[in-house]
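Continuing the series of single-chain predictions for the mutant panel. This is the parent chain; the variants come on the following pages.
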Amino acid sequence: MGKIDTVVYLRKLGVHITNARKLVLLTFLQNRVALTQGQILRITNDTIDRVTIYRTLDLFVCKGIIHIIPSMDNITRYALLRSNKDAGYYNNHLHFMCDNCGKTICLNTIPVPMMPLPNGYSIKETEVIVKGTCKNCN
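Parent structure:
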């Protein structure tokens, strides 16, 4: 996504600008990994309350700024979307989850194979998790 102005980016997507929303977006831009609500709370040094973070995450998902990453441990993780076609995005990419440290990243450059479906079915989203050991834990 490169270096972006959080205010300009949020305004472009029709998001009302607040300090909390700017800080949450900046947190995703600076960390580049999937984050839980608790991690965002810690990274922002508890300057934003849990409810505000939850509402901001919900809004960002609706606006196509971030997406929810499926997980096997029932902990919701969120990651920045690399592209946003005015929230009409098709979220179709792989995710890598490290068994050792738990870091989860989006693998945007690896194509997801198209799955043949029976007639009358249509794909909305493909969720694929690849598990293993990240380069830092190897």
